[in-house]
Amino acid sequence: MPPQPHFLVLTYPLQGHIAPALRLARRLLAAAPGALVTFSTTVTAHRRMFPAEADAPDGGDGRLEFLPFSDGFDNGYDRTTDPAACTDYIASFHAAGARSVGELVDALAARGRPVTRVVYTMLLPWAADVAREKGVPSALYWIQPAAVLAVYYHFFYGHAGVVTDNRHDPSFIVRLPGLPPLAVQDLPSIITESTDPSEFYHSIYTTIRDLFHTLDRETPRANVLVNTCQELEVSALAAMGAYNALPIGPVPPSGDETGLFKQDGAKYMEWLDTKPADSVVYVAFGSRAGMDREQLDELLLDLEQSGRPYLCVVRKDVKAEFADGEATREPETNARLRNGMVVEWCDQVRVLSHAAVGCFVTHCGWNSVMESLVCGVPMVCVPHMSDQRMNAWLVECEWRVGARAEVRSDGVLRLRATGVRQRVEEVMQEGEAGAGAARRAASEWKRVVAEALGKGGSSDRNLRAFVEAVDSGVSV
Ligand code: UDP
């Protein structure tokens, strides 16, 4: 008898990686009622998720277990602005991570809970090698759009020269097989701003390059689960013929949003309850992007002057970064906050699901974009780095569910607050000819995505095919 299907889901310790990995873990359990899942991230992130070990849920029936691996920094790693320290961390993450995950796979087998499939998020190129050494098939879980996967693929296979030669010319148009013409400024910043060893995210660039080499070693073809759906990215998925790319998303929240951040106790849902439908501007820039004091003051002032109610997330660590002596000072504009509410962290999916929310001003992290789409909320995009610029391009040019605000060429967050208000107005207007188009498109995409995720929909079928292949020991 084949062993009980058991997925080991491995993820990099960032909120934007943990959230979709945990959602996939839940979805795997639902799609394969006989399967087990072990969810694993670094020791430090695990402790942040579950301050008391007893907090780690077991899925009710022992089918979901949370077991950490070591990145060599079990007592924590402080984010740094020093590129050398960042490179050292990534090197340790790779070496210690590979060792520790190998030990974890052995330990699970010794306990009579052998892993039958490793599923790993994008910054763990070694995970496939570890799995292969242990005789276990693996699948990459790509947590950015298929378009970004396709751009990276073509960059690493034949088109690096044209991008690198023109990387300082934002409007230069790059033509990649199967993709529409793309301006350099819309490509992932990892291939336009991190290819030189002196650049801050160079170690992320080399990690992604290694990932593509890892996929090459998979036979007959690498399996890649993509957190998108077929209907959203038809041509980009077709451009990925080299892999067995299965769109299985956008994986929806399961109600268990255990993560690295704690909820703000403020009564923001009750506050939303007091607002008319589609009236509130929700503003949040994810779990990592920073903001300086001037940008925040300017943004809040601009939102105030718009006269629209707004809910704005300013994370605790962002406030802590403000200049000495100002950390404890509330935003100056707070005294004048008549229309808005500022919180340190909210349940974003609940907020986006609230009928009062009419627009999302976002840095365009892929999770935020997908959550907005699932909830049918149009967006104003303030992309900063990595895939966010392409995500913003998808929002505005491909799906037409929002508008890109003018961004600065540098800065903690590339936010130019004064440009945001005009875009918010465009996105939120209703009625007149042409206006309200983003909102209508958002409602339509909400329906399409719900269908893809629903029983028999494209993403549902793909996930089931993946799970059934594991059940029967066949590679999909
Ligand atoms: N998020 C949240 N509450 C907040 C701000 C963000 O729950 O107040 C969540 C959001 O729902 C998303 C994640 O944090 O799932 C951010 O991921 P994303 O890919 O959008 O951006 P990243 O943090 O990776 O830059």
Labels describing this entry:
binds uridine-5'-diphosphate, 12% strand, globular, 15 strands, 476 residues, 6-stranded parallel sheet, Rossmann fold, 2 domains, single chain, alpha/beta
Could you walk me through the main structural features you see in this protein, from its secondary elements to its overall organization?
GO terms for molecular function: quercetin 3-O-glucosyltransferase activity; quercetin 7-O-glucosyltransferase activity. The protein has 476 residues and is an alpha/beta fold. The chain folds into 2 domains: 6-256 and 454-472, Rossmann fold (3-Layer(aba) Sandwich), CATH 3.40.50.2000; 268-449, Rossmann fold. It contains 17 helices and 15 strands. The protein has a 7-stranded parallel beta sheet. Strands 12-11-10-13-14-15 form a 6-stranded parallel beta sheet, with helices on both faces. Strands 6-7 form a two-stranded antiparallel sheet. Helix 3 packs parallel to helix 4 (126-133), helix 3 (83-110) packs parallel to helix 7 (202-216) and helix 10 runs parallel beside helix 15 (417-428). It is globular and about 65 Å long. Bound molecules: uridine-5'-diphosphate (UDP).
